[in-house]
Amino acid sequence: MERKIVKTADGSTTIQLVEWNEQYHSMHGAVQEAKHVFLKMGFDHAYAKKPHLHELNILEIGFGTGLNAILTLIHAENLKLKLNYEGVEAYPVSTEEIKQLNYIELLKAEEYTSVFERMHSVDWEKYAAINSQFNLKKRQQTFETLTDKEEHDLIYFDAFGARVQPELWGESIFKKMHTALKADGVLVTYAAKGSVRRAMQAVGFTVERLPGPPGKREMLRATKS
After folding, report:
1. What is the CATH number of domain 29-93+124-224?
2. Which of 34, 43, 53, 211 qualifies as a FRET site for 28, CA 20 to 30 Å off?
3. Cα 37 to Cα 219: distance, rounded to the nearest angstrom
4. Longest dimension (CA), the chain
5. What are the backbone dihedrals phi and psi of residue 41, each rounded to the nearest 5 degrees, phi first?
6. What is the Cα gyration radius of the chain?
7. 3-class secondary structure for 83-146?
8. Tell me: the pLDDT tens digits for 9-21?
């Protein structure tokens, strides 16, 4: 499938799958979307629920370009919090594609250039210390093969949209997500379709509709009760 680097509305780049007319991030702004959905509505919410937590386990469904991972690392740097971050990705982004992404430049975070490079260069399938508080494990597998059980405090659900991969947005996948979370764990996603909300509720999640990122009216946050 043809892939190309495209610029989104906030100036940040993303990868487009031409045949599907689908992007790794929102065309309304890749960085804006990630900060709103995964940091503000996900990370900040999960941390606020347990402010005395010393360690947070995060699972990202769709590691992709590493945007959510680097934003999380930067965002959490001043917290006395150890992050264990696992990113699941069936089809890793190539080194050449990574070089064409402008996240570090756009964020004016040149001091994190080597950190972002390290995220993409460390070995898959084992934890690597990206810095003193951020451990990363990249897992090359399809989402359907997940067997995690009560391991994670927070899930960033960033799969391709239901328009192109509806099988990733049904009850069977969200059952796996529910099982993967610890009690009171949280899942956030940019999606807001009624069918997605109902699939989450059917497997036991309590689901909230929240204001969405720029260009999107709503998003969903699900809590394991």
Report:
1. 3.40.50.150
2. 43
3. 8
4. 47
5. -85, -20
6. 16
7. EEEEEECCCCCCHHHHHCCCHHHHCCCHHHHHHHHHHHHCCCCCCEEEECCEEEEEECCCHHHC
8. 999 999 999 999 9
C-alpha span between 138 and 10 (Å, rounded): 27
Band (pLDDT 50/70/90 cuts) for residue 53 is: confident
Q: 41 and 219 in contact (C-beta within 8 Å)?
A: yes
CA gap 71, 69 in Å, rounded: 5
Cβ distance 15 to 66 under 8 Å? no
- What span, in angstroms and rounded, lies between the C-alpha atoms of 149 and 8? 36
Q: Where are the domains of the chain?
A: 29-93+124-224
- Closest to 154 measured CA to CA, from 208, 87, 204: 87
> How far from 92 is each of 63, 100, 138, CA to CA, in Å?
8, 15, 10
What are the structure tokens assigned to 10, written together?
A: 């906030």
CA atoms of 187 and 46, how far apart (whole Å): 9
pTM over 0.90: yes
List the one residue out of 87, 85, 89 whose CA is nearest residue 142: 89
Tokens of 11: 């100036």
User: What's the pLDDT at 50?
Assistant: 84
Q: Residue 153's closest CA among 188, 191, 125, 183? A: 183
**Token pair belonging to 151:** 């391991």
Backbone angles phi, psi at 220, to 5 degrees: -120, 145
Angle between helices 194-202 and 171-180 (to 10 degrees): 50
